[in-house]
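Order emerges. One example.
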Amino acid sequence: MLQQIVNFIVDSGFVGWTIIATGFFAISIIAERIKKLFFDFHMNTDSFTKRIQHFVSQQRFEEALLLCEGLSRKPIARAFKTILLKADREEEAIQQAADIALSENMPLFNKRIHYLSMLANVATLLGLLGTIHGLILSFQAVATADPSQKQALLAHGISVSMYTTALGLAVAIPVMIAYSFLVSRQNQLSEELFEQVQKLEETLTGVGPMMSVSSSNSIDIGPEVPKMTGTGSYRNS
């Protein structure tokens, strides 16, 4: 079976190998996007948001920031951190922070996905190019080849035409299917991020005067979030 596939590709010529290279490039993008969108960016959004909302409602902003630090690879946590750092500012500053958080994290969802649509179209067009190349070989065989070789050359040209067409479609169809699934997942995550950022912004602009907040990249998240007094200082244990 494997030998037949190799012969199929070899018989399709240079165009066939180009289509295969396009397919491998598309597979690498699909694998990377699946890893990011379905695994790296996945989280229990409801549970995380409820904890942040709980901290914010009690003006325990440092604890909220610590929680976001511990999930810094998640776009929602990074967006929340950007907003929470402005929690002690005026309403306009909080709104600007929400806009910044969205503009910084939304592109993480759609990065490189648009290339898949392009690669699917390229694979289809390469298949068409191979079809035309095969037809040219066939016509050349009919016009100029020795009568004893004409049939063989004609069959070769037609086979090249069909092989490249089949390869182009074999690459383009799965890539377009993967593209549709990834776009659907991208839209889901984008809508989720937008919705949660809007909720946090509304909560922050409605809780009244804010305490001063700070954050450091060196913060380490332990197994438990330390409790704080109403004034914002850590309670000695």
User: Anything to note?
Assistant: The radius of gyration is 28 Å.
